[in-house]
Amino acid sequence: MIPFVKAHACGNDFLILEETVAMRQHAALARKLCSRNTSIGADGIEFLERRSNGEFFLRLFNADGSEAELSGNGTRCVAAWLASSEGLDEVVLGTHGGPRSCHVVEDADPLYLIESEMGVPRVMERTIELPGIGNVAGAMVNVGNPHFVIFVDSEDFGSHGLSWQALGGQISVSPLFPHGTNVEFVKVLSKGEIAFRIFERGCGPTTSSGTGTCASSAAAMALRGVDRELKAVAEGGAQRTVWLANDQIMRLTGPAEIICRGEVAGL
Ligand SMILES: N[C@@H](CCC[C@H](N)C(=O)O)C(=O)O
C-alpha cells in the first residue's frame, strides 16, 4: 500500500506522494491514482523528494502521466502539507521550472493561505494558425511551464465559434507547441480584475491553476495595461497576483486545503 495525502487549491486537486515510493513508476502511478472512477482521483501527483542536505524537490506528473515542469497550485498544496505536518511556515520547493519559495500568510489548518514567488514571467504576443479554425491571436507565456493566453469578451469564454473547452483542447495538443501547452481564456473585467478559464496540458479543463493565474495575469498586465496587482478569478475561486515590473518576480497568493490522507493500492 502507498501512503498519500490529498489536497486542493480552488478545486485543482493533487496527490502528494513521497518520492521514495515512486520506484521509477511516476507516470504509471499518476495515470492510475488520478483516475476519478477507479482510484482516488486528482489533476496530478506531486512527488516530494527530501534531499540529504535538507532541501525539497518536487516532480509533478499530470493525470495523463506526462511530466510538467511545475504546478503553482500543486506547489502550494505541498507547502500546506509541510506546514500542517512539520510546522514549516516558510519553505523553498525545488521544481523543474525553478525554485519556488512559499510563505504561510494564514494558518487555519487544514486550510492555508499561502504566498509563493513564481519566477519572472515571459510574455510574447503570437498569432497561431489552426487548420479548420483560422488565426487565433494570443500570447505565449512562460512561467516555468508553457501557456497560451487568449483574450475573449464572450459571455461563456468561447471564441472562434467554439467553446473554450473545445478550442483549448485543440490548441493544447497542436503541433505548433511541440511540448504541448496550457491554454487560458481571459476576460479583463476592470483595471484590477480578470476572469479566466483553464484548459490544462495533460489534464483538460480545471477549476483553477496557479501557473495559469500567473500567465493570465502577466499577459493582461503586459499587453492590456491592467494594474500590477490583480484579482484573478477562475471557476474555483480567486487568487491574487503582484508583478511590479516585467523583469521582477511575480508573487501569487491563494488558498490550499488538505483534504485527507490514507493508503492506496499501488500498481
Ligand atoms: N494546475 C497547475 C499546472 C499543472 C501543470 C500543467 N498541467 C502543465 O502540464 O504544465 C498549476 O496550478 O499551475
TrEMBL record:
NCBIfam families: DapF (TIGR00652). GO terms for biological process: lysine biosynthetic process via diaminopimelate. Signal peptide: none annotated. It comes from Edaphobacter modestus. Keywords: Amino-acid biosynthesis, Cytoplasm, Isomerase, Lysine biosynthesis. Its EC number is 5.1.1.7. This is Diaminopimelate epimerase. Belongs to the diaminopimelate epimerase family. Substrate binds at residues 12, 62, 72-73, 145, 182, 200-201, 210-211. Catalyzes the stereoinversion of LL-2,6-diaminopimelate (L,L-DAP) to meso-diaminopimelate (meso-DAP), a precursor of L-lysine and an essential component of the bacterial peptidoglycan. It catalyses: (2S,6S)-2,6-diaminopimelate = meso-2,6-diaminopimelate. The gene is dapF. Homodimer. It is an enzyme of class 5 (isomerase).
